[in-house]
Amino acid sequence: MKILLIGAAGKLGTAVNAALTARGHEVLAAGRSSGDLRYDIADPAQTSALYDRVGPVDAVASAAGDVPYKPVVDMAPENYEAAFRGKVLSQIELVRQGVSRIAERGSFTLITGVLCRDPIPTSSAAAMANGAVEAFVRAAAIEIAPQRINAISPTVFTESLAKYGDFFPGVPPVDLAQVAQAYVRSIEGAHTGRIYELS
Amino acid sequence: MKILLIGAAGKLGTAVNAALTARGHEVLAAGRSSGDLRYDIADPAQTSALYDRVGPVDAVASAAGDVPYKPVVDMAPENYEAAFRGKVLSQIELVRQGVSRIAERGSFTLITGVLCRDPIPTSSAAAMANGAVEAFVRAAAIEIAPQRINAISPTVFTESLAKYGDFFPGVPPVDLAQVAQAYVRSIEGAHTGRIYELS
């Protein structure tokens, strides 16, 4: 398959790219600040330009989402808006604009995360964004069939424990390679409206 | 208790107001377009003005949320933004601004809805908003203790079946009086971070 991968240069995106390439797929690697396809999907106009540039694809996979971390009382309305634009609207626009552009039985695979079910302090904007995307995935799935849409919702990565482990005391981490296989499952499988929880 | 109720003139708000008043509470009824306290909480500045006007309260209850309904492919980015402002940011701001203003052991009770778990066609913005608020509630709960926060997540109201029943084929409705009791449970009980699902 020809697969458009957003956030391809990130820690997760790199693992997903490797897993999809190993399965023989052609990966079109897009990102905000590196690679050939430099587009920031927080801006709906750039999402449109990206789709125009790559032409028809069989699947769209997102490994990109940017949210601020602060205690609720230190947040400003603008911080929640930034989380909405950076992880929710950005991924919704991939779907909304993509429905008319991807293959008739193509798929969308979005990224969320464990914080919407098991929050940590300072994670209210991240949790909000993840919960929004997961509910959107369930709702969009019943409208866009036979196109499919799923979300990948991992806990902290084993490879990120040195940096983030202190925020997840006692929480079993997940290997990036295992998260990447959830993308393979979503893209090559037949499920839709599913949240693949890796935690 | 002295309870600030947002959306007090709506179908749900009216039932909540009656239930809380019957329990002996003093209800301060706020709304966008009726009553003495006319404030639109979709605007964070009006939320601030509302809190300034009412002074200290023991609990804040929301029965207000405005979202657009359209198929995914007919939505515009602005429709999802409107849902975010009208149901997500509006209720988050009630909490964020309220933490420093309500009683030390006071509570927030927000409104979500069944569509984030059991969507219907055209409900992707509503689902997104409900999922966002429910995840926010779980995340905020672990930060604001001993203050508490819960969400009420009802299915279609028995009293709304004539208008909306066709969108919920085979779905058992819930009586408004029963939904109102979930507000009582949230406000007078000791739970926090709970989503009371009435469906």
UniProtKB/TrEMBL annotation, chains A, B:
InterPro entries: NAD(P)-bd_dom_sf, SDR_DHRS6-like, SDR_fam. It holds the Pfam family adh_short_C2. Gene3D superfamilies: NAD(P)-binding Rossmann-like Domain. Keywords: Oxidoreductase. It comes from the Bacteria. The keyword Oxidoreductase applies. Belongs to the short-chain dehydrogenases/reductases (SDR) family. This is Short chain dehydrogenase. It comes from Saccharopolyspora erythraea (Streptomyces erythraeus).
